[in-house]
Amino acid sequence: MSNDAIVMLREGHKELRRLIHAYRADRRPEKVEQFLRVLTVYSYIEQEGMYPRVSVLAPETEQAVVEFREEHHIAEVLAAELHDMNPGGLVHDAKARLLMDIVERHMNAEERDWFPRVRAAVGRKELQEIGAWMGKLAERAPQRPRRRAPQSAWDAVAA
Q: What pTM was estimated for this model as a whole?
């Protein structure tokens, strides 16, 4: 497998899409758990490896990175709620489908707009270095979603 960060993220997208399609085909709850595991690792390496480095190397993409981080936040909240729920049932299925829709939208935006801009702005060597770092991050990435501590007093009241 290539160490190029964009190639690595595209491979992650393929795996996530495969899991989304598998769940949509038969709605088996255990497929949601598989999806959550892959999504958790993928999200971690993207947020800890790709986004910070690209923000420095290609500051013109910062607006997209900010939007992507917000999408990650929403996905993390839904993923943690799903992980804590009893599998099956209408609410579990609705939340799983919503999360998968959000993830698909996110992946499409990255592939359509952001990856080409990053590829044009960041050198091959840098993308390989980022990819190598992301590989190390994957080894220590969390394997399941976790709830984050409230970020503000309002979040604490709303929880």
A: 0.88
